[in-house]
UniProtKB/TrEMBL annotation:
It is a multi-pass membrane protein. Coiled coil: none annotated. This is Putative ABC transport system permease protein. Keywords: Cell membrane, Membrane, Transmembrane, Transmembrane helix. It is found in: Cell membrane. Residues 21-248 form the MacB-like periplasmic core domain. One of its GO terms (molecular function) is transmembrane transporter activity. Residues 293-414 form the ABC3 transporter permease C-terminal domain. It comes from the Bacteria. Pfam families: FtsX, MacB_PCD. InterPro entries: ABC3_permease_C, MacB_PCD, Macrolide_Exporter_MacB. The chain crosses the membrane at residues 21-41, 282-313, 342-362, 382-404.
Length: 421
């Protein structure tokens, strides 16, 4: 079937009027180019939004205590309560599917006063009392030293891991932070590590470095928090979603703190997974739209090829008649027309893919060289699976484009074709 003579005939037929062929091919080139660019743009936007999460474990919920909104068992409405460290153990024990339950305490925050001192230098920073798991829920790069571990928790070590901005504020450029001491609300803590991380949740990169992490146990002891917990970061495992498990979490908290089971305002929460799923749904819709628009544009190019092939068949009526008179079968004629159509469609599509790849390479080069890290657009790419689908679409489109002209070609009777001028 794929003989040299056949391919030479295909090339000769398509190059007989090369201006017409190129203009026809541009429709398919443009269609596949639009399809790839739209899908890549959707990927770039998705990557940018995910980058904005700063590496957060997305299957996560943030939970804090609020005033009760209903009286219950003699307890008044409007009562405030605190989470306790014992609540953490209860959640881990009673609920299957939770991967991490991290209690957190905090000093500082928005509008906070200078709470950290080193020598004559001071700064206002967020100070967190944490467990080691928090680094898996809110990832950061340890640039020197180490992060907190369970020996620090068990021994209530007064140690601290500080952000890069904290280091540059409290230490001179040539000073080493590791092993030195900073004073947090009048209590000395030894620096054991430094970190860098991206901003998330609307926080920019610089603000993300203005943080200090100390062991939860040392924080509670140093700042008289007893067994109270300000808030929790709770992450589900890969087999479960935190959205499905959070009702169980609330029920246990309400039971342990004598809260009306129907009081939905007593436990504040932010379901990151739920919000992330909404964003994923948006990107799925964008990809469907991109496919739809791209295929429609591609379809217009395919229709152009079909029309041109009809003209080609009309121009070659006498040739087809001679071939039929010499014994060519209908399948031979049909396959020739279909091959020409598929060949033109695939070549046009490959040119469109190459052109789109060049544009994406240029876009990635420009994005990599941009100084701003807050651009919500990153690494616009299309995976090999999408390219394979595009090629399949091209093959099917080529067959469809040549099907009607091929059927018209085999309907021509040899005698009538030979009479055609």
């Amino acid at each position: 079937m794929f003989t040299r003579d056949k391919w030479e005939e295909i090339i000769e037929s398509l190059s007989a009027n090369w201006v017409r062929t190129i203009l026809t091919a541009l429709g398919v080139v443009w269609g596949i180019f639009i399809l790839v660019i739209l899908l890549a743009a959707g990927t770039g936007l998705e990557n940018g939004i995910k980058k904005g999460f700063g590496g957060l474990a997305t299957n996560t919920m943030f939970m804090w205590a609020q005033n009760t909104s209903k009286p219950y068992k003699g307890m008044p409405k409007g009562r405030f309560y605190n989470f306790k460290i014992e609540d953490v153990a209860a959640l881990k024990t009673e609920i299957e599917g939770l991967k991490y339950v991290s209690p957190r305490n905090q000093l500082g925050g928005f509008g906070g006063n200078n709470n950290v001192v080193r020598g004559l230098k001071t700064g206002a920073f967020n100070v967190y009392g944490d467990y080691p798991e928090i680094i898996r829920q809110q990832p950061m790069d340890i640039t020197s030293g180490r992060f907190l571990n369970y020996n620090d928790i068990d021994q209530k070590r007064k140690v601290a891991v500080i952000g890069q901005t904290v280091k540059t504020t409290l230490f001179d450029k040539d000073e080493k932070a590791l092993g030195d001491y900073i004073k947090i609300n009048g209590v000395n803590f030894q620096v054991i590590g430094t970190f860098a991380k991206k901003g998330n949740g609307g926080q920019n990169a610089e603000e993300a470095q203005k943080e200090i992490y100390v062991p939860f146990s040392a924080f509670s002891q140093a700042f008289n928090r007893a067994n109270n917990v300000d808030w929790m970061v709770i992450t589900a495992d890969n087999k479960n979603s935190i959205t499905d498990l959070k009702t169980q979490v609330f029920d246990i908290i309400k039971q342990r703190h004598t809260i009306d089971p129907s009081d939905d305002r007593a436990v504040g929460n932010f379901d990151l997974y739920k919000e992330f799923k909404k964003i994923q749904g948006l990107f799925l819709a964008l990809n469907i739209i991109a496919f739809g628009v791209g295929i429609l544009v591609l379809l217009s190019g395919v229709i152009g090829i079909s029309n041109i092939m009809l003209i080609v068949v009309k121009e070659r009526t006498k040739e087809i008649g001679i071939r039929r008179a010499l014994g060519a079968t209908p399948w031979t004629i049909r396959s020739q027309i279909l091959l020409e159509s598929v060949f033109l469609t695939i070549i046009s599509g490959m040119v469109g893919i190459v052109f789109a790849t060049g544009v994406l390479m240029l876009a990635n080069f420009m994005l990599d060289n941009m100084a701003s890290a807050d651009i919500m657009f990153a690494n616009p790419t299309v995976n090999i699976g999408v390219i394979a689908i595009a090629l399949l679409i091209l093959v099917v489109s080529g067959i469809l484009a040549g099907l009607i002209p091929a059927q018209n070609a085999i309907k021509v009777k040899p005698v009538d074709a030979l009479r055609t001028e």
